[in-house]
Amino acid sequence: MNVVEQELLTACQLDQDQLNQTLAHICARDIDFADLYFQSSSHESWMLEDGIVKEGSYNIERGVGVRAISGEKTGFAYSDDINPMALMQAATAARGIVQSGKSQSVKAFSRQQYIQLYTEIDPLSTLTQEQKINLLHEVEAHARAQDSRVKQVIVSLTGVYEKILVAASDGTFANDIRPLVRLNCSVLVEQNGRRERASSGGGGRSGYSFFFDVVNTKSRYQGYAEEAVRQAIVNLQAVDAPAGMLPVVLGSGWPGVLLHEAVGHGLEGDFNRKGSSAFSGKIGQQVTSELCTIVDDGTMVNRRGSVAIDDEGTPGQYNVLIENGILQGYMQDKHNASLMGVKPTGNGRRESYAHLPMPRMTNTYMLAGEQSPEDIIKSVKKGIYAPNFAGGQVDITSGKFVFTTAEAYLIENGEITTPVKDATLIGNGPEAMKKVSMVGNDLALDSGVGVCGKDGQSVPVGVGQPTLKIDEMTIGGIQ
Amino acid sequence: MAQIESINTAMQQVKERVAKVLELANKLGADSAEVSMSKQQGLSVDTRMGEVETVEFTNDGALGLTVYKDGRKGSASTADLSEKALHQAVQAAVNIAKYTSVDPCSGLADKELLAFTAKDLDLYHPANISTEQAIAIATEAELAALNSDPRISNSDGANFSSFDGFKVYGNSHGQLVGYPSSRHSLSCMMIAGSDDEMQRDYSYDVNRDFNNLKDPKLIGIESAQATVSRLNSQKLTTQKVPVMFRSDVANSIFGHFIAAISGGNLYRDSSFLVNSIGKQVFSSHLNISERPHVLKGLASSSFDSEGVATVDREIITQGQLQSYLLTSYSARKLGLTTTGNAGGIHNWYVSANGGDFKAMLKTLGTGLLVTELMGQGVNVVNGDYSRGAAGFWVENGEIIFPVEEITIAGNLQDIFTNVVATGDDYDLRGAIQTGSVIIAEMQISGQ
User: Fold this and answer.
1) Is B256 on the interface with A (CB under 8 A)?
2) Is the pLDDT of residue B395 over 90?
């Protein structure tokens, strides 16, 4: 008996037998699959603005979601109270998706084995409240010490401690403890009446000590403060971005949001089962330049997007989505995998017990190529170099996707020159990815800040890529 | 009637619980406190290709509280409403208030500004839709769409949702108010074309009262028409042209304006509209009014999220800025009085001077009609605007061909002051009610 079962079952007058009986109650109708998802989470956030700690909050949430699947149909109900009666009520509501039919069997539970990818520690307890406050002040002081043009600093710190347990009619019985921390620094700089804002941050599935780890001779938290100030100062000098089609060099790391939008969403199993994705029916075909090998990797240690098990109890996996340009497979949850006759890939994720799982990305990145980033820049006569981005969006059916620069420069005759203002880049996923003509040897993952939204559900994700060149993209500048 | 009685009973119980939490906060050492609690239940049904795909029963409740002690603030929330969890939440908030800083601007809203009773704004119309009825409604929309045009090749599904519940807010000024509300919606999304070019588009409606919801068949047919009209989309060449935002995307322009006049961005000097009261920020023909007490309004409320009574307000008169959007906190930071906009705006109405959609196209003449925007490329600090777009190319007031994979760019300051005309083809489905909007010129980036 571990701490998760203790909290989510025993303390709520539940045991494995009762979960089995509940699943049997659902499967008394013609139900192919049913699962119960128990979750508890505590979440804290702290915010410092201009020298004072303005906000602090603590949130607790727990509940159970019950899902019943028959063919393509899904019934779903949940309760924010975990007890035998509430569980049975939710089960009765969920099985209402099927009115009758012959009873299906429920397999005996077998405990899912998996590799631990992150600590089980409660991050909220890894610093005292005083230490958390001190960290906020230190980030601010470090940002202000960088440059006298820094006028305002906002620092936020959040920590989540989540426990989940899944029990399913296919015999799955699994649980996981998922810590998640995040630190962000946002600055406003001003020069001659011109103001610019920029932010930087990071995090992972870890305790707060993550922010004190030394990377490149300084603590991570100092790195975030310096990076926010550096970006804001660059943007003070930015001129209008050009309009029209130009070659684009994307930096390594966070610009991997390109892959998330241009490729990732379109490879989620649900869209492909329904035939609504621009990538539907293209397994085995060339969908990107042959320089691209793209993976979704839920198994990275301590990463924000990692899942030791997904929210259906399937262990996280390293899935090759595209190899040398050829589409290998889609990301699947159990439901879509079974309807498409393939195996689940550890991508069944949900925002909470009150949401249905669906195929979602974990950490999505492109493997390194052979070129040096310098050679890639040198190869461009006139174009854009974009080492940092804000968010993006995709229409998976038409394949159109956008992402907006947060730091970008002109490339003129093989040299990075003037910074340009934020501009939205637009393209068609499969077409743009066929125009990838150079891939760098400098693969990097983002710093641990990604949030992905789909059907109103948010989940933490990671992205990454080496420096790469796209021969032409439409740049949404104004001259 | 029985349903109204039962929701009133449930709301009364929640009010008692909120009062208890306020008492507890006081007992655990808070100088003052505020508590909000909501409950919502409902049903959401998805169909696809005329068959039910998911049936989801929702039942959400959450309590959030903020306590103040010696000028310091602490917050907590919980979805677990057991006595033990509530006690834990109050204790957590009080503990946090030991570590936050003294902030002279924080605290409850001023007592004389509060709404001590909730007006009946006719927001509660429970529909008692059964699962079978919900499936039938969504299916009707979807089948109408699938059968309306042979170019429709696939469906992304239809959704019918019906929710009702209530909100209660209380604070240690003795305010304890609440109101019930409902919301019903139907949407349908279709796919047209195949291998070479696939397009999707949708239609939807939303209303407080189920009986006022648009005919499902009509929503289906509209979604199919919207989708097939996008087939054979082309890129435009890079150029500067007049741009018309169709009413359902025109509200985004005013959404950016909301961000620019929100107190939080103003006191942080993070808006291009700091110190703009009385200044010309829009074209002189344009007026915007806020009307919080419209019956059945989607953004109606007689008090904001900190209990402040909402009042009718002019935001823009003849293009000049009349009011910011403030909370108690941002108002104190700016030395002003709150405008009752904690939690957002309450029903905005944008004036019309350009006639209906057809007349607006004539006014546009030759240029771009935008029907979809993508991405968040808007910078409120300096007004820079760059977003992905799709729509139609218009010549001499006639739609010529669909357009995609382009961006439109400019600066919000110029966009606001170059509104040529606003239509009376109002989109009534949101908090911002506006017709189509024509901007004199924007940069299009294409090929």
Assistant:
1) no
2) yes
Interface of A with B in 281-340 (CB under 8 A): none
Q: What is the pLDDT of residue A3?
A: 93
A135 Cβ partners below 8 Å, 6+ apart? Answer: A127, A157, A183, A208, A211, A221
User: Measured between CB atoms, which of B76, B191, B446 is closest to A474?
Assistant: B446
The stretches of A147-214 forming alpha helices (DSSP H) are none
pLDDT tens column, B1-13: 567 788 999 999 9
Strands B152-171 and B32-48, sheet pairing = antiparallel
Q: Does B78 touch chain A (CB under 8 A)?
A: yes
Q: Report the gap between the CA of A260 and the closest CA in chain B (Å).
A: 14
Does residue A348 sit at the B interface (CB-CB below 8 Å)? Answer: no
Pair type for strands A363-366 and A294-297: antiparallel
Q: Give yes or no for a contact between A36 and A5, defined as CB atoms under 8 angstroms apart.
A: no
Q: Which residues of A touch B197 (CB under 8 A)?
A: 398
The CA distances from residue B13 to A67, B20, B80, in Å, are 31, 11, 16
Chain B hits for A353, CB-CB cut-off 8 Å, are: none
- Contacts with B106 from chain A: Cβ below 8 Å: 54
CATH number for the B2-228 domain, one of 3.40.30.120, 3.30.2290.10, 3.90.1150.10, 3.20.20.10? 3.30.2290.10
Q: Cα–Cα–Cα angle for B401, A240, A413, nearest 5°?
A: 100
Q: Is A451 on the interface with B (CB under 8 A)?
A: no
For chain B, the structural domain boundaries read 2-228, 239-252+352-445
Closest CA to B436 of B271, B247, B240, B270: B247
Residue B226, amino acid:
A
Buried b (16+ CB within 10 A) or exposed e, A40-73: bbbbbbbbbbeebbbbbbbbbbbbbbbbbbbebb
The pLDDT value recorded for residue B196 is 82
Selected residues 338-377 of chain B with any CB under 8 Å from a CB in chain A: 374-377
Contact criterion met (CB < 8 Å) for B270 and A188:
yes
Nearest residue in A to B406, CA atom:
A426
- B402 forms bridges with which residues in the sheet? B392
pTM, entire model: 0.96
Instruction: Please report, for residues A240, B238, B240, the alpha-carbon distance to residue B405 in angstroms, rounded to integers and kept in the order given.
Output: 21, 12, 16
Both tokens of A158, joined, read 């959040």
Q: What is the DSSP string of B273-338?
A: TTT-TTSB-S-TT--EEE-TT-TT-TT--SB-TT-BBP--EEEEETTEE---B--HHHHHHHTS--
* B191 vs A62, A78, A397: nearest CB: A397
Q: Which of B80, B374, B384 sits opposite A421 (nearest CB)?
A: B384
Contact A426 B61 (CB under 8 A): no
Residues A316, A117 contacting (CB under 8 angstroms): yes
Contact status, residue B204 vs residue B185, Cβ threshold 8 Å? yes
Distance CA A201, CA A220 (A): 9
A235 lies within 8 A of chain B by CB? no
**How does the average pLDDT of chain A come out, rounded?**
96
B340-364: pLDDT as tens digits: 999 999 999 999 999 999 999 999 9
Distance of CA B211 to the CA centre of its chain: 22
Please list every residue in chain A whose beta carbon sits closer than 8 Å to the beta carbon of residue B76. 57-60
Q: Which of residues 127-146 of A touch B (CB under 8 A)?
A: 129-130, 132-133
Q: In chain A, which residue's Cα lies nearest the Cα of B44?
A: A76
Tell me the torsion sign for CA atoms B416, B418, B421, B425. negative
Question: Which of B301, B441, B425 is CA-nearest to residue B364?
Answer: B441
